[in-house]
Amino acid sequence: MSKNGIRYDEEFKQELIRLVKEEGRSIPKVAKETAGIMHRQKASSVP
């Protein structure tokens, strides 16, 4: 498990890798673009 306790499914991880490899985006840019998605996933997991 990660430090923040969030687990991402394989499909989500593969999409991030695809954005970097196939679309040539930088890792920091992809991280920034997906930060909102990850934040919403974490918030929705809180009861």
Number of strands: 0
Share of β-strand residues: under 5%
User: How does the helix and strand content classify structurally?
Assistant: mainly alpha
What is the end-to-end distance? 20 Å
Secondary-structure element string: HH
Query: Kindly state the mean pLDDT as a whole number?
Result: 77
Largest sheet: none
Q: Whole-number radius of gyration? A: 12 Å
Q: What portion of residues is helical?
A: 55-70%
Question: Which residues sit in consecutive blocks of at least 5 with pLDDT less than 50?
Answer: none
What shape does the CA trace take? globular
Count the helices. How many? Answer: 2
Number of domains: 1
Organism: Tindallia magadiensis
Protein name: Transposase
What does this structure look like?
The chain is mainly α and 47 residues long. It has helices spanning 10-21, 27-44. The longest helix is centred in the last third of the chain and has 18 residues, at 27-44.
